[in-house]
Amino acid sequence: MPDFRRIWLVGTFISIARWLEMLVIAVMVYDQTKSPFLVASMTLVRLLPMGLFGATLGVAADRVQRRHALVAVVCCQAMVAAGLVVASLLGQPPVWLLGLAAFISGIAWASDNPVRRMMLGEIVGTTRMASAMSLDVVANNASRVAGPALGGALLAAQGPMAAFLLSLVLYLLAGAAALRIRHRSTVTQRPLSVIRDTRESFALVLRQPGMRGVLIVTIIYNLFGWPANSMVPVIGAGTLGLGPDGVGLLASMDGVGAFIGAMVLAARAPAHWYRPVYIGGCALYCGMATAFALAPGVVPAGLALVVMGAGGAGFATMQATLVYIAMPAEERSRALGVLSVCVGLGLLGFLHLGLMADWIGAPAATALMGVEGLLALALTWRWWRAPR
To answer: In the chain, fewer beta carbons within 10 Å around the N or the C end?
Structure first.
């Protein structure tokens, strides 16, 4: 399927650039401020658009040709990267500018579920959605290896301008692939009432059997699991004594485990695995976040990140898949928009972790967050257990 490959390439190039930028911005902010809270805040502002606009983007995506929306999103990200290149040429980009760039890029990220991943589902169909998502997660997590490693190496050797220049090149490649997509989505002709439809989206999703549990686990993962990733540069530099290239290599270990986990799921992912893999992946990620934070050295920390990444791959592969197969075709884009809102609630987790890290230190705060995630899963068992 040529269009599947093109959409997959768009996601791959964007993902490499995204993880590169997140690592480089985190290291730059920590170098300037030495504040774990401000480091976590960079991811927080990148997630903020998901919570603010995720459901609205899901509704709006039904009213436009998704191919055109995807091209516009990539162009927006390319302009942000070009701005960071220029700012780096003029000197050290200030923290506020890095935060603004992260926020604008976050708007593009919030559109990924209702635009690009919805197009993937339209092309491959419901029966092959899990395999398609596995391959998409493989690419995403390969980029979590390549992005931080490339970003850390370029930052150490050439400075931020070279890293952001590579990001710009990756967005241009993504744009070229997006322009070659031939798939045309169905444009909804409903009367224009985005606010009303956004409000109704939540009721539609919650009425669907099994969806309440999917959204609860999504919120737990993004509140208590994923924020741990933002502390990898802080723990790597501040606790383990690594330089930018070492921090980049350590951060990529999460991606190594996720790549392996996604490859296993792409090879074999029967339907009765979907929900256990989803929930188990969340639990494993939270548990290994605690293990990483308490690791006594670089090697055990890296191994904990590998296992953590494998859990994250299981969660990420099944997240959009479960939503896609559970919802009627005409409501999938809106449901994926609601899913983006639940992901966006993770900004509260990053805020929580950042404040705790400033108070009790990054390792202790990260370990505590992982324990909180496992406790939250245990307390919500009645809602996410398999439906009767």
So the answer is: C
User: Which distant-in-sequence residues (6+ apart) come within 8 Å of 348 by Cβ?
Assistant: 223
In the chain, where are the structural domains located? 2-180+197-384
Say how many residues make up the chain: 388
Kindly state the average pLDDT of the residues 125-154: 78
Helix/strand/coil for 92:
coil
CA distance 309 to 384: 22
Q: How far apart are CA 18 and CA 13, in angstroms?
A: 9
Confirm if 116 and 8 have CB atoms less than 8 A apart.
no
pLDDT above 70: residue 388: no
Tell me the backbone φ, ψ of residue 63, rounded to 5 degrees. Answer: -100, 0
Indicate the SS3 state at residue 58: helix
Spell out where 158-235 has E strands: none
| C-alpha–C-alpha distance, residues 243 and 171, integer Å | 27
Token pair in block for residue 297: 């050295």
Say if CB 179 and CB 78 are below 8 A apart: no
- DSSP 8-state symbol, 330: G
| CATH no. for 2-180+197-384 | 1.20.1250.20
Contacts of 139 (CB under 8 A, 6+ apart): 8, 11, 12, 15
- Euclidean distance between CA atoms 13 and 171, whole angstroms: 7
Query: Look-up: residue for tokens 């401000």?
Result: 38
Residue bearing the bigger pLDDT, 156 or 168: 168
Those residues with Cβ within 8 angstroms of residue 30's Cβ, 6 or more apart along the chain or in another chain = 36, 38, 39, 233, 234, 237, 238
Q: For position 196, what pLDDT does the model report? A: 64
Q: Which residues contact 143 (CB under 8 A, 6 or more apart)?
A: 12, 15, 16, 18, 19, 255
| C-alpha 84, offset from chain centre | 21
